[in-house]
Model the fold of this input.
Amino acid sequence: MEAVIVNNLIKTYPAEKKSVVKALNDISFKVNAGELFGVIGPDGAGKSTLFRILTTLLLADSGTAFVDGFDVVKDYKEIRKRVGYMPGKFSLYQDLSVEENLDFFATIFNTSIRENYDLIKDIYVQIAPFKTRRAGKLSGGMKQKLALCCALIHRPSVLFLDEPTTGVDAVSRKEFWEMLQQLKKQGITILVSTPYMDEASLCDRVALLQNGAILSIDKPTVITAQFNNTLLAVKADNMFGLLQVLRESGLAANSYPFGEYHHVVMKDNISIEELGNYLNQKGCTTVNIQKANANIEDCFIALMRNE
Amino acid sequence: MKQFLSFVKKECFHIWRDKRTLFILFGMPIVQIVLFGFALTNEVKNSQIGILDMSRDEASITLANRINASRYFDLVTNLQSNTEIDAAFRKGDIKMAIVFPEHFRESLLHTNTAQIQLITDASDPNTATTLSNYASAIIGDYQDEIMGQNKLPYTITTQVRMLYNPQLKGAYNFVPGVMALILMLVCTMMTSIAIVKEKEMGTMEVLLVSPLKPIMVIIAKAVPYLLLSIINIISILLLSVYLLDVPIAGSIVLLFAASILFIITSLSLGLLISSFTNTQQTAMLISLMGLFMPTIIFSGFMFPIENMPLPMQVISNAIPAKWFYYIVKSVMIKGLGVEAIWHELLILTSMTVVLLTISIKKYNIRLSQ
Done:
């Protein structure tokens, strides 16, 4: 059974001089119940708009969407009872303590902390030592954990997390994803959006979103497997010079900085030796060329170029 | 119900934990009453005067003493010449000079007529008029006295009675005004800010994606401010009765009922403002410029509405504070009952109903983008 169904959603915002910005351009996809589904895309791709439409906060211009079998326009009241939503911006009461925030959200969802404590226990124990502290005084990671607790307290059937790890340190990010895996085991469908490509591999399935359109949608492993060009990681003394040489060479379909290496997508029929010789000719020193496995970011860049 | 109580509790936490605002909310009525009562008064008390007495006879000295003895005047300087009068006014030492010409008593007794010159500083016209009136009254009293039994053949005596406020105290006028001002400020501005704050902080987004009904959010937001305003009314009334000696002539119950009605009017106005603003700053500006100023100008407590040009008189009818001011004056100062103010009560009630309906209709069940 599908927890979320999206059919041909279009959403535009008015922009300057009567023109419009297309935030979502004819999007369709489905999310299975119990799935951890990632919406991956850079800032401005339309992630938040999509989440707001699904959580009944915005109306789409056209298209339909169903959450848990309910129409987001007609049955918005039903949806609001059963989904959990964590907006991108920290949206709890800064002047209330951790415990008061949690208690408040439990009550407005007609439940109590005790009733669903088992669901949030693993997360809550981490912030419990600070339960009398005002939410505004928590660290970024702690805030996210509290917000997650508040979004979970009524045992939602579908959980929408809009960029939960943006602005959170690497350790807290890792912990956060581990928590999501735990929640998945409880049978909660989770939709999570993120601009971090490296988080894609932690999802069951991902949709790559760019300029309001879905570039690709599948299991992360399937998406990376579809990358069928040769991908090389190249390093040299002068990295900036190297990139220029690579781009002028005509041997690479695309080359871009990637961590401490440059990733080079090779044109067909060009071997590693050819590239190595060319770079040596051009005076690049201590050149190091390795074969690399494409990850989601490489796929994303390749898909963007194909657009 | 449990949801509602929890929401109200949360609102109370917000108010209680913002100590500075809390202090302003409770301190404001006290400061305003004290300010209006003792500093910003247009009553004339202990005005400095100078006397130039060129006759120095029994009559002029008696009259001068009487004037000095009244609580309106305070003799600060005995002037010696006409040039000194000018100098004293220029220096701002005196507000009025009284000049007795030579042979004051003689001419009074022999020619049956004598003149006294009152010179006032009319750079403030109201004070000047008031001072000369007070002085004329004292002089008139003295004249009646020396005339004794020798009544003039034809006299018309005016008998003036200052109803409701025999001592002409300014407090009778401004206590109702301050009540209107403070309730307007607390209810309208604070509720609109409280709701817009949820939008600004992003918490509204979370509240919307919850089973909470819009009407519940609105009422829960308003309840703490309703309670706060009632406390403010009590403190204003206590201050005015015990500090300013303004008695409550009419029914306290009626006064409270009318105040609560006005509070609800102001609250719904605040809700309306919050429904079409998105930042606390705009909400505050609209409340201040759009409501606070008109309340001062059009409620009639600073400037009499009857003296305004017709278009402005018409506008003043749209200001809820005008009606509330009239009600409080009628009940508290004049001691009138509900039969005298039902008309105004009805106007306030219909304003409230209209405002509430619009603001509940306009309450966004989604994000307003």
Remarks:
- Chain A touches chain B through 31 residues (CB under 8 Å).
- The two ends of chain A are 32 Å apart (CA to CA).
- Chain A has ten helices and 14 strands.
